[in-house]
Target: Betaine-aldehyde dehydrogenase
Amino acid sequence: MISNELLPIHVAGEWRLGGGDAYESLYPATGEPIARLKAANLADVDEAIVRADLAFRTSGWAQKLPHERAAVLHRVAQLIRDEAEPLAQKQRLDNGKPINETRALVASAAGTFQFFAAALETLEETITPSRGPFVTMSVHEPMGVVAAITPWNSPIASEAQKLAPALAAGNAVIVKPAEVTPLMALELARICEAAGVPKGIVSVLPGKGSVIGDAITRHPLVKRVSFTGGTATGKHIAHIAADKMMPVSLELGGKSPTMVLEDADLDHAVNGVLYGIFSSSGESCIAGSRLFVARRIYDEFVTRVAEAAKALRVGDPASERTQMGPLITAKHRESIERYVELGVSEGGQIRTGGVRPHGEGLERGYFYAPTILEGLTNSARISQEEVFGPVLVAMPFDDEETLIAQANDSVYALAAGIWSRDFKRAWRLGRAVQAGTVWVNTYKQFSVSTPFGGWRDSGLGREKGREGIFQYMEQKSMYWGTNEQPLPWAN
Ligand code: NAD
Model:
């Protein structure tokens, strides 16, 4: 337990106890409480949003020149770096990821603020070609109050990914972190305050999604929602947004195919496949959870992946040697176990895993062994539905045409991986596979300068990239008349 005290939340520039129920954030590696807090209630939601709207109109944040807001964002990046280690440790406790991963997430959050500060300072509006006696321009304005709703799997990074561009654009931001991982968003609010973001511009409202997230989305003063989470929740938010005519971006689920061709560098491919599905315990939207291997090398390749999966170090997230930590909650582990049972009932064979690992310190946490299932088709439910855990379905393929047909046969289209030394084939497959991101001879690499998002049930809109700031702005066209005479019609 970090502290017995109830942790305050951040409502409209004030640190105070939420008006909702008290709850605990548990360390997934032991089940022990690491923080107690009171969730936000509906009155907190309304107050945070009304006062965010006031701060947007009166604090001067939106009116600051780009380089002035950029300077504040640079300070946020620096403060995150100054506190990198304690933040990484807190993130480890909040969601149970191994310390090496949480350090990378913290570094990524700092990098995101730095990138959007630079992007903001160098962002250009356009003068469009004139078609009459006027000068035409396209400019962008901040929206007002926008909301960032995030899941529990990579809190500080996904919160920074929304907060940085939304603040860069000059908005006020209501952050709604996942109920089970509230701590990093609160830390980011504290850091923004210390960096000079005006009071009321950032609020953090932990609580139940169906109550707090829903109320934020429906609030008339909220002008945009940036959501990352499950597809069902994303669709719910999209319905509300349609009624409000409100833009949304939705980063949703995935069931990403990884394709290993005969000519692949197998050492690299084995590593990439393992990392793609088992890092973050598979709790990753872009997890490469469907593996297609050329039939000629299938047995050799899957044997190597299975041996390497067995050897993964599952355990204490505090250890730098640990490769896989626990799952987020006991309930989530049960849902993964049900999926594996379903895969077996559909005719699948467990090549490795399919159990809770035993060993020192593993009994209390929500650990699950890296699992590989074989003997299933791409149409099995476990090949089609997102498990969001360390479960890989391996399938052989015979030719490129059936490979692409199967890879694309999914409601999801978030990411894909291709392993081949033949760049022409990799190019052909890379263009044919339907996915928001395609990795060729690598997997699960990210760059904040490159847009990210999904097709179909994997989402709408893109985050990251220089243009990411415009996602949080309204576009406006301006015509400056240069006529010497009155408009002819009026005459
Ligand atoms: P979730 O959809 O249950 O919750 C995500 C967030 O939405 C949480 O903050 C939750 O409290 C809130 N929420 C829940 N119901 C809501 C409602 N009715 N209205 C408004 N907000 C609501 O998802 P999760 O279980 O936290 O996260 C796992 C999912 O997130 C997986 O499907 C995963 O693929 C997806 N994900 C996607 C990406 C991406 O970038 N595409 C990244 C990470 C996770």
Remarks:
- The chain has a mean pLDDT of 97.
